[in-house]
Write a structure and sequence with these properties.
With 203 residues, the chain is of the alpha+beta class. The chain is built from eight helices and five strands; from the N terminus they run βββββαααααααα. A hairpin with a 3-residue loop joins β1 and β2 (16-21). The protein is globular and about 45 Å long.
């Protein structure tokens, strides 16, 4: 229904961003909302997917058309809903996800929230050999952001925002507490905290 929306980034939260276009604010769920931080207040182009089911109507948004395509393919897998697909994409390592599917690496896939052995096997059965058109140019700089110097209070706020985003993706408090000490040693932006946390959670 909506291929993309162009507008100003008006709000960034743990689960979604709000894109203002012609005085209308569109609530768009996205894998890593804080990847829009450096564009806050600026105009962006967000590729959208309009999802409708009996108990939910929602817009999901992505930086690229390829990311959107992978999201849709994940939704076709039995056992994976929008939240689960966002959690997979939030890792910022789509090539590793595709490689895991091609190599039938269930041990890697079950590390994502909500993905058990049965769902991981279904991902492999449904998607193996069908993602080659996505991989070659699959946004190598997804969710990347230059490191910024920040004061301690700004770092604390960024860390807390990252924790909320991880919880929204479905990671448990136990999993988050396990990696928190290492994360707190560094001064990063919210986006960078999320990316680093996901790298640790998927090891």
């Amino acid at each position: 229904m909506y291929e993309f929306i162009k507008g100003r980034v008006d709000y960034i939260g743990p689960e979604f961003v709000v894109i203002e276009n012609n005085d209308i604010g569109y609530q768009i769920y996205t894998p890593n909302p804080y990847s829009f931080s450096k564009e806050f207040g600026q105009a962006v182009k967000v590729y959208t997917y309009y999802h409708v089911r009996q108990d939910l109507i929602a817009l999901y948004g992505f930086h690229t058309r390829e990311e959107k395509t992978l999201f849709i393919k994940l939704l076709d897998v039995t056992g994976i809903g929008p939240k689960g697909a966002l959690a997979v994409l939030a890792s910022g390592e789509p090539e590793q996800v595709v490689q895991a599917i091609e190599n039938e690496d269930e041990a890697y896939l079950v590390k994502f929230p909500g993905v058990g052995k049965k769902t991981a096997r279904q991902m492999i059965l449904d998607l193996k050999g069908k993602l080659q058109n996505i991989v070659p140019d699959y946004f190598p700089d997804l969710f990347s952001q230059d490191k910024l110097e920040s004061k301690d209070h700004a770092m604390d706020a960024a860390f807390e925002e990252a924790i909320l985003a991880l919880q929204a993706l479905g990671y448990s408090d136990r999993e988050i507490k396990k990696i928190s000490p290492d994360l707190k040693k560094e001064k990063l932006t919210t986006d960078q905290y999320i990316k680093k946390a996901l790298q640790k959670l998927l090891k």
